[in-house]
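User: I'm new to structure prediction. If I give you an amino acid sequence, what do you actually give back? Let's try with this one:
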Amino acid sequence: MADDPAAPDPPFEHAPVMVELIVELLRDVPDGIFVDATLGGGGHAEAVLDAHPGLRLLGLDRDDVAIAAATRRLARFGDRVRIVRSGFDQLERIVGEAVGGSGSATDPSDPSHLDPYPATEGVSAVLFDLGVSSPQLDEMERGFSYRSGAPLDMRMDRRQAFSAVDVVNDYSFPQLARVIETYGEERFARRIARAIVDARPIRDTGHLAEVVRSAIPAATRRHGGHPAKRTFQAIRIEVNRELDQLAEALDGAMAVLAPGGRMVVMSYHSLEDRMVKQTLRDAETGGCTCPPALPCVCGAEPTVRLLKRGAWKADEAEVALNRRAESVRVRAAERLIPESA
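Assistant: Good question. You get back a string of structure tokens that encode the predicted 3D arrangement of the chain. For your 341 residues, that looks like this:
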């Protein structure tokens, strides 16, 4: 369904997860640019800007509705805020334009009006809040939820043509099974993929959810949440290239982070969290290949220190207020200051 440019923006009421922890983790970073790579409705960004007057925000998001909501929410910060409609895989390029002051002044996504500062200094903080937001799930027309009959969409960036309908109705059986098994970690992936192929054309999300439910053994359907949850997650990740983009984004964030700057990542499922954990481990060890029990002799040099060994999790009080917090894992690292500095 085509977007109606004349239609009013739907509400984007999003309660930020573990906001007090995020503020605390970023409280002592140097003054400079704070990149919120998954801006959403701007809840985390607002709290961080309030707590740290020396930060200016460069916010990224692919979702036009989220950007409209964040723009309204953050308007009171004036020129401390710049929002760019982009996937976070473009983080390093966009930061380069911001610090270098390059780009066209007529480009609405151009961040060049930020006062340039030397690119070698990098940015002070980078935040990722991964996955799909509650407002995206609640807006049924977006097709993220398995709880109603909505268009097979699932695009975070509605400018792209590729959507869930292409995955569900056009992928071959092997392609579909791979997506569901890899991104959904679904043990019945092949059964589900076969059922989807046999039921084509799949009309909407309600039809898809029913096909998935019927493909899973009855005994398994009685526990573990909605039987279509993993399949919908897998298709959403495929549509939006979430894990491919995350790998690029994490590398980009590491490349632009200033000495003393911090990166904080909030993950909601194991695939994301494993990728984040490995990225931070590689940075902490400098990519050391020596046996763990022996001193390093390969010349690797660490570039970050972890702020916690492992991940922060939400407590019961947080989960009671916001169910999305139940699965969150927060990992954070600080860029080391070179010994020669």
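You can read the tokens as a compact description of the fold. Here is one thing that stands out. The radius of gyration is 21 Å.
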